[in-house]
Request: fold
Amino acid sequence: MKKTHLLLVCLSLGGCDSATSSSSPAASAAPAPATAAGSTAPAADKEQPAALTDIDLSPAGAAWKGWSVKAPEGTKVADSGAGGPQIALKDYQLTITEGKLTLNDIKSGAKVGAEAVQGKVTFTTDTPDALEYVTELKDVEGKAAKTYGFGIHMKVGDKTYGCQATGPTSEAQVTEAKAVCNSLAKK
Reply:
């Protein structure tokens, strides 16, 4: 994992739209958990997913008080600096925002990141509500490595939220990351 940190920094430059809607998530009534739009989960590989538990998103700011996701024990939450939670799992990160992500920016960032490390990016899903990609590169020892990323939209109640992953290194982590994103709920 440590060998791909440079790539992760490059890939994270694509980011999401930092503008948030005028109403905060805390102002909404308790909606149902999120559902992904236009997202397909890759087949699980040999990694076993960790048990998921409720993770409080209030460390991301007052607007996220009463919000949670289901994620592995030990998951850390902070303010992303763009009005939403930054969720740090063991080997990768997620960012949730209110409103739609700017998927074209994420796509551009993935391309620039791959070029910066002389890698190749393949977009496996490219729809108005989901962008998924795999970056193939060589690590610092010259061995082949892959990283995955995605940006998806979810509905919670009548509002749309975006979730972006940077850094998963396996299809099992992508599956876990999507489960975390889709568990977004207001208590």
